[in-house]
Design goal:
homodimer; 8 strands; 308 residues; Rossmann fold
Chain lengths: 308, 308
């Protein structure tokens, strides 16, 4: 796709929903956290039900999780999926359909983890839960090289920091990382926060900062590489696929990580899709951009897992 | 179960969620309709994902719908499921899991219809959409005698009025009706509205009345038998299975329909489960009461569809 290509008609539904959410997030009086959580649960309405996928709730070593089980998927290959929502909202139900589409495209089972959320459980609870689920997968006999991490927004952060933390703990690394519209920049330094402020319907000034405060709590640091991997040493990390929309306020999170990973010698793929909003893959099964990116990720990741 | 049996520990989760919803519904200032709709979407969190069920969105003759496709289900037998929510809230997504459990227990494909909602579309839009989906199923080659209607609350009303309307239009009747905590009583005359007011955590005074006003709009009648089948001639209707919780404000909707149907010679089964809330089958896969009732319904309906 070229940068002059117009966004699809179908993608207008996401812009409209995000605009409505963005308006409500900036209303006075401000929404209660519970109301924001309920609102963001509606993200799932953007996706179509993936066909030929079954589900099964599971206790992943103490972390609630959901298997997305595409018919015919390789049983010994797994996508470990972390949902987005600023580490504060959403869960395995709101992201089940998007994860189901991704698992199906990759030809693997998908494990969507429901990590503890901030502010009740600030950093590093989320990363701890991610590592617990990863250890649980290894304990189930799944080889690290047959696992890839994936996630959107805050989940894209977790999909990236999980291998960093695994390395720190002496665990074998997964085969690949997929970060969809990742949110890394805890300092809110990104240029696209300003340059794309007019085109991002959802991520308005203050939203990320508010979530950062809840995520990091009283003790977390904005430059901790396991909370903000723009500060991480990515050398030796597995191949990474980054995607974002060109209309996103958080677009340059993906850009900057791509530059950092490439500099560190990581096999890096960056795809910026014109005119797309934050986590445009929410429209899995509904917009051509979402479907094309998901298909691309499937083709990219399968050989890394030893799948044809 | 006897009336002295205590509700399960697991069922406390539904009472707690309903109590929270009930409090918010009666707060001052009152919630906007949009907020009520978002809140009620959370009903689905009460149910576990049914295993071995896939999904597929479908256009059922113009009515958006979702197939729940249990692995190994009879392909030529169908549950036509209408969701609850006072004809005003909810949709195929909030009821997908409960419908999936029911379809699996019955050994059939489930079609969850997303009928138009009030107040944007008052009565009879919901019934029209139900009939459209029913005609569509017949047009797909599914025999009427291989279909049963099912629904909870307002959807239990629709599951009951659909065969009445089908008869009025000269269509063949489905094999059975399953009404889960049905809401029929548009006049709010039920004794349990008072006698169970202290035990029903969700359905508080005024809630049903408010939904009735939206459902019937300016022209509907509270005693129209196709809106309030407590006024219907049930003679000749298919076997009906009614269930409700003994702590429900709407309990006697099921009681009264059972009496009406029996008087009319209809094969009628009524199951009142002690200590249960409105639509306790929302807890499918999570509470023993929900699972037992769903299993009972499966055993009840299969022979009526010619299944072993």
């Amino acid at each position: 796709m070229t940068s002059t290509q117009s966004p699809s008609t179908e993608s207008e539904a996401q812009r409209a929903l995000f605009h409505q959410f963005g308006e409500r997030l900036t209303a006075d009086p401000p929404l209660e956290l519970q109301a924001i959580r309920e609102m963001f649960e509606e993200f799932h309405t953007l996706a179509a039900e993936p066909t030929q996928v079954c589900y099964e709730e599971v206790d992943a070593g103490g972390v609630p999780a959901m298997w997305c089980l595409p018919v015919g998927a390789a049983q010994d290959r797994v996508m470990l999926f972390a949902h987005g929502g600023g580490f504060v909202t959403n869960g395995m139900c709101s992201h089940r359909k998007m994860a189901g589409h991704l698992a199906k495209a990759a030809g693997v089972r998908g494990l969507v983890i429901e990590y503890r959320r901030a502010p009740e459980h600030p950093y590093p609870a989320q990363l701890e839960d991610g590592i617990t689920a990863y250890r649980w997968l290894l304990g189930q006999g799944i080889e690290a090289g047959h696992i890839f991490t994936a996630g959107d927004s805050a989940g894209g952060n977790l999909a990236t920091t999980l291998p960093l933390k695994a390395r720190a703990e002496g665990l074998p690394l997964p085969a690949a990382i997929v970060a969809l519209s990742p949110w890394y920049d805890m300092e809110a330094k990104g240029e696209t926060l300003v340059s794309n402020a007019a085109t991002d319907a959802l991520v308005r000034p203050g939203l990320a900062e508010g979530m950062t405060a809840m995520f990091l709590g009283e003790t977390g640091s904005m430059s901790d590489p396991l909370a903000n991997p723009l500060y991480a040493d990515m050398a030796g990390m597995p191949p990474i696929f980054l995607t974002a929309g060109s209309w996103e306020a958080l677009q340059d999170n993906a850009d900057r990580m791509a530059a950092i990973a490439r500099s560190a010698g990581v096999d890096t793929t960056l795809e910026i899709v014109p005119g797309m909003q934050h986590v445009f893959t929410f429209q899995a099964g509904r917009s051509p951009e979402a479907d094309q990116t998901i298909a691309t990720i499937g083709r990219w990741v399968r050989p890394k897992l030893g799948l044809g």
